[in-house]
Each structure stands twice: as C-alpha cells, then as structure tokens.
Amino acid sequence: MATARATHQSFEDRLNRINKGAPNTMGEVHIGPRDEEKARSGKATNTVRLKAKKKKVKIGEGSNLVLVPVAMVIGAMCAFAGQAASFHFFQDGGLMPVTLPEAVAVVEPYLIYAHLVIGGILALIFTWTFGFNGLFRKLAVVAGFGAMLFGHVQMVEQFPAIHANFFSEAYVAAAIG
C-alpha cells in the first residue's frame, strides 16, 4: 500500500511540474556528482547516474615478452616429441611396425607425415592447456615447431648424445653421415 501511495505521489508531482510549465525530468541522465542541496532534501528523484567505468586490464596482457619464447620452446619440444614418437612407433621392431604387405602398400606413403600428426596434436594440446590464446603466441608455437623440423639435422649434429638417448645410435649416425 505504501509503495502504491509513493508511486501515485511521484506521478502527481510530475503532473504538477508539467502543468506549471517546468521541464519534464523523467528519465534524464545526469553525469557527475549530485548536488549536495538536492541530496540533503531527501526527496527521491528519477535520475539515472552513470558511474565512471573502471579500466579493465586483461590478465597477461603484457606477458608476450615471456610467453612467446616459452611458446616457441613448447612448439619445438612438440616437434621433437613427434619425431621421437613416430620413430619408436613405426620403425622395424617398434611399438606398431607395419609388416603386412597389403598394409605397407596402403600406409607407407603416409608414414612420412606421422611425426607431423603426432607433434601437431601435442602442440594443440599444449596450446590449449597453457592458454596461448593470442595470435603471437600461437604463431610462436608454429614457429618453434617449424624451426625444430627444419633444424633437426643441425640439432642432431650439435647434440648427438641426447638424440642417441631418444632415438638410437644408428639413427644419429645416419642423420650425421
């Protein structure tokens, strides 16, 4: 009942203002602090006040300096892991060697892309896991992946003992020689 009375009273006040020739202030938007005299009078008004918007700072916005090199390293590691996994999966005596003559004819042309598929899936998983959402970070993963693929022979020549641990001595000898 009190709410209905207050609503009716504000409507009556508005009609009185309009009849007197005063401006209709219903729904006006006022920007800035309110007047102290009006605030002290205690009378409810129908003004809408816009609040000053706070600056929204994205978390990690300036961290490309750190995350782009990390993304490149992760891309290179994914390419290396894809090469090692395809070597151990599909070599003779590996986990999944292709031995049937019919299967060799069908699968053999595509085995050269196995390291790209395995490494690419790993790169997608790590990109999603670490939240590399920006374009620069995704391109850094791709750049690291490509750098490792194109520089694989140089990496084997530079670090033969590490590659012998992940691949085999024969693989390192064939890559160097």
From TrEMBL:
This protein's UniProt keywords: Membrane, Transmembrane, Transmembrane helix
Biased composition (Basic and acidic residues): 31-40
Membrane-crossing segments per the record: 65-90, 110-132, 139-156
Residue ranges, annotated region (Disordered): 18-44
Superkingdom assignment: Bacteria
Name of protein: Uncharacterized protein
Organism this protein belongs to: Boseongicola aestuarii
